[in-house]
Amino acid sequence: MSGELDTERLAPRERVIAERYVLRAELGRGGMGIVWRGEDRVIGRAVAVKEMRLGEGVTDAERAEFEQRILREARTAGRLNDPAVVTVYDVVHDQGSIYIVMELVEAPTLADIVRRSGPLAPAMVADLGRQVLAALEAAHAAGIVHRDVKPSNIMVAATGRAKLTDFGIAQAADDPTLTKTGAVIGSPAYLAPERLAGHEASPASDIWSLGAVLYYAIEGRAAFERDTTAATLGAVLNHVPYLTRVQGPLAAAVSGMLAAAPEGRLAGPQIRSLLGAVGSDGTQVLPPRQAEFQNTMLMSAGAHPTRPSQGSELPGRGRRGLWPVAAAVVVALGAAGGGGYFSGHSSGYTSGKKTQAVADARASDGVRVFTLGGPSSQFPKLSFSYNNCLSGPPFVPGTPVYQGADCDKPHDLEVYYITDTVDTTFSKYGKDGTGPVPYPGLAELSRAAQELCWADRLIAPSANPAGNHYTYAALIPSEDMWNGASDLPSGWQADRKIRCLMWNVPGQQLPGDASQ
What we know:
The protein is an alpha+beta fold.
């Protein structure tokens, strides 16, 4: 383990602890102690030695609890075996202090790197995320929660090798509870919302913290850090962060990890699939944006900002829905810029005029986007009835007619994912009679649709079977459809859903579930 200081400070004099370890130079210090560069005289190897210290005025009981916690740290880290975890070699007592002897990693922290060089390249962020995720999964499998995942606890070598350190406040599920005293342990800007609400740390809270770390690496700044601790905690609870430099699988992964509800966050396999796709055509680096936006629509209602309607796996299908990513992406609509969402003005759209702004548009991630509903849309009238598997003509703009099909048998078109973009339960708009939800604009709806439809098809095990070539598309509501305008087809109501569709190459149908 190495510290965060640029210049090493020599120990006042050569110190030998436990008649074995020589302390050579100070590497860094924090609230709980000092890290030294040391040498193991028995084995003859360089080590890092963490000298744990308590402030003045602590009681004997507090000191005893502190020592138990430190011993637990050593036991915890010693149980882990992963290349991205800093190895603990020994723990010793000497002259009233406790020392933890660890692997010496001579590398800057992620915090150091970003401070000096700015945001990291998407591929590097993804690789870093995969390594730290593997370390966390190893810990979680052992019943251990890290509790303090943050940039200064991740060291990154010049080769790109990452190391997660400081399990000093990790809590093993089978260890006596030493930290249930009402105090929140960890760094405020990287604490999951449920931790601030008083709930115990969990594997899901580590995942949230990793999402905040990757956001920091992508943007070059912390998503929730503010000038005061109170403001930082408020941001964690109320702010919806929006990635400005990337889109596609990396943005979907980070958004999915930062879902407010623990049960709504992505799991390890989903995160790994998304991060594994970064660097392909599915990732587009965007120019930096100057503004940081809030999800004012939900926040003004006093509701938690990441609780939109859940996306849903459509009935009768074996395909896995990706509602956590959908929830995160949909919330990003309110946080995305342009004022269209806040003022009710469209972005890139003129009411009453037919537009082809997104006609035949192909995102770099391979998801086409089309508008649905009314004369200003590419599909003025397209009915899916209650079926999500259909048979009919090729999917091209206009008014094609489809019939419901058995999903177990070959079919021509499939609506494989659907989600609402707004839940008025958590909004000041709609149910309480204060007015309609403003149309967010084609640009923001298109971006959200591309990300959630792309992410879901990426994770689906049958995304592109051999001998087939699927096309993926998203249907977003036109402004007429969103507002329930009078020029909609007879019987149509306002609809704010995003629908994800897929079809096979011309002349081939999608295989039925029974044949997969």
